[in-house]
Amino acid sequence: MIAPDPEPLSVGRSQPLSLDDAPVVIAGPGRAKSLSLNILPPLALGTLILGAWYFVSYQLLEEKRRFLLEPPHAVLKVGFLDWDNFSEILRGLRSSTKVAIIGLFIAIVLGLALAVIMSQSKLFERAIFPYMVTLQAIPILAIVPLIAFWFGTGQKSRVVVCVIISLFPIIVNTLFGLQSAERGMHDLFTLHSANRATRLRKLNFPAALPAIFAGLRISAGLSVIGAIVGDFFFGRGDVGIGQMLRKYANNLDGEQLLAAVIMSSVLGVTVFLLFGWIQNRAIGKWYDPSGT
Which CATH superfamily is domain 70-283 in? Predict the structure, then answer.
């Protein structure tokens, strides 16, 4: 007796799959590993920094010179938990934040306008770009007397410092982005007889958005530095964080000085992350930074 041949396989036949046939994805361990890789290294480094901070405060510095670097718990107690001191720092931080925002807004408007003009004409690019590089290369301390002479020692001078410091990255990154559109896309727009305005609006600006936001993130941090530096040298008007840094240093108030420095850093990081969030909301759905 000959056994029947096994049923031949049907290449094109599909059979319904049950839940038992579905692949099982275990996300728990992988997600925990990802969180540990993102959280543990900063925590470990922060612990080392705190340990080194305590070591310098108590081992390398004598008690009479400890004001140079007060221990972390003293900074927390005097600079942050004492509401009178902390509220004073917050008022100064608010004034510096306002100056940084005004200066950054002016720098964005000027930078985008100049970059667009330079991208549309090689003649304007060759004429303007050397002076932008020169302006960036001038030490800001060297022109502080001129700024005070022209704009006084109030809030206007602080805004001018912010604009000078934060203008160049916006121009350079925007110009690079506007000139980075693919040549094939330019040929396509030429084929459809697109004018300059249409090409700029529908091709150059979308292609330039990643570079523009990169420049904005850099300039956002620089504007905070400019607000603090300007406030440090121009002491009239609203008291900013720069004037407080100078006052705490003159009075040897180490706890308040370190607390003000920490809050200044928090302001800079916050502004940087804010523009990163705006970038993700604006172009994160279609832009792949890896290029894949």
Answer: MetI-like (1.10.3720.10)
Dist. CA 118–CA 280, nearest whole Å = 27
Whether pLDDT at 15 is above 60? no
Q: What span, in angstroms and rounded, lies between the C-alpha atoms of 238 and 285?
A: 42
Q: How many helices (H) and strands (E) does the chain have?
A: 11, 0
Domain boundaries, the chain: 30-69, 70-283
Q: Which of 264, 258, 282 is nearest to 94 (CA)?
A: 264
Compute and round to an integer the Cα radius of gyration of the chain.
Answer: 28
How far are the Cα atoms of 119, 134, 168 from residue 138, in angstroms, in the given order? 25, 6, 12
Q: What is the mean pLDDT of residues 106-127?
A: 90
Structure token digits, residue 249: 């240093």
Residues 6+ apart with CB under 8 A from 85: 78, 79, 255, 256, 259
Q: What is the mean pLDDT of residues 137-150?
A: 85
Taking only the tens place, the pLDDT of each residue in 221-263 is 899 988 888 888 886 767 788 888 888 888 888 889 899 999 9
